[in-house]
Automatic annotation (TrEMBL):
It comes from Sistotremastrum niveocremeum HHB9708. It comes from the Eukaryota. One of its GO terms (molecular function) is nucleotidase activity. This is Pyrimidine 5-nucleotidase. InterPro entries: HAD-like_sf (IPR036412), HAD-SF_hydro_IA (IPR006439), HAD_sf (IPR023214), Pyr-5-nucltdase (IPR010237), SSM1_domain (IPR052791). One of its GO terms (biological process) is nucleotide catabolic process. Transmembrane segments: none annotated. Coiled coil: none annotated. Pfam families: Hydrolase. Gene3D superfamilies: 1.10.150.450, HAD superfamily/HAD-like (3.40.50.1000).
Length: 251
């Protein structure tokens, strides 16, 4: 028998660089701290950069490589990196984004977050953005478990469905600023997978600047493997019209 939850849509919002703009430059600050962590392990600057990037590409998170190859304590890493970010000075609430979340029809939609960060960082960001009361649940990378998964690994998405008691992935709507993360969700049959791409903003992967235009292909200049590309979350009002309350004026 289907539960009440099965009949509802679930929106999963990525947090970092999705619920706040890339211009906050938090990924740059995170990258610096992760780099410093590698250096603190005794690596020269250039080797630290290479290994940081290599682990990011190989494991989806630099930390995964550190745990696997260097027996790093993930919680200590989290305190030294994400935990030391001066987020209160870097982020500010966006009333238009809060209104966007308020305008989602909760009688048929649940609103969750899905992040590669640990819960401490996720909760901190949501609180500073004044969105914590509007997010019903957070799926995070659980650094406390010996082998934790992260986006874009299928195991992470599948555990997210389990965690949120979702049995029908076609009723999931997902938005993330990482095209790999969006594609991975689409491959698993998630209903609507949207890529948030802020043109002109520098994008960092594993401590290095990445050119995201390279993802485009074909005559249509499209990004394969995603349902839609947006440059601002407010565009979700059109793309996901069916989950918003009707006749509400946009702010
Ligand atoms: Mg992100």
């Amino acid at each position: 028998m289907a539960s009440e939850q099965d009949e509802k849509y679930t929106v999963f919002f990525d947090i970092d660089n999705t619920l706040y703009p890339a211009s906050a430059r938090i990924s740059q600050a995170m990258g610096e701290r992760i780099h410093n962590y590698f250096v603190s392990m005794g690596l020269p600057e250039d080797e630290a950069s290479e290994l940081h990037h290599k682990y990011y590409k190989q494991y989806g998170l630099a930390l995964r490589g550190l745990v696997h190859h260097h027996e790093i304590d993930p919680l200590e890493f989290d305190r030294a990196c994400d935990g030391s970010l001066p987020l209160e000075e870097m982020l500010r609430p966006d009333p238009a984004l809060r209104q966007l979340l308020l305008d989602i029809d909760r009688s048929k939609t649940r609103v969750w977050a899905l992040t590669n960060a640990y819960q401490n960082h996720a909760k901190r960001v949501l609180k500073i953005l004044e969105l914590d009361d509007l997010i019903e649940g957070i799926v995070f990378c659980d650094y406390r478990t010996p082998k934790f998964f992260c986006k874009p690994e299928p195991e992470f998405y599948n555990s997210a469905l389990q965690h949120a008691s979702i049995t029908d992935p076609s009723k999931v709507l997902f938005v993330d600023d990482s095209v790999s993360n969006v594609r991975a969700a689409k491959q698993l049959g998630w209903g609507s997978c949207v890529w948030l791409y802020e043109r002109g903003e520098e994008w960092i992967e594993g401590g290095k600047v990445v050119d995201r235009e390279q993802e485009r292909s074909g005559d249509n200049n499209e990004i394969p493997g995603v349902d839609a590309e947006i440059s601002n979350l407010q565009e979700l009002r059109k793309i996901w019209k069916h989950i918003f309350v009707e006749e509400k004026n946009t702010p």
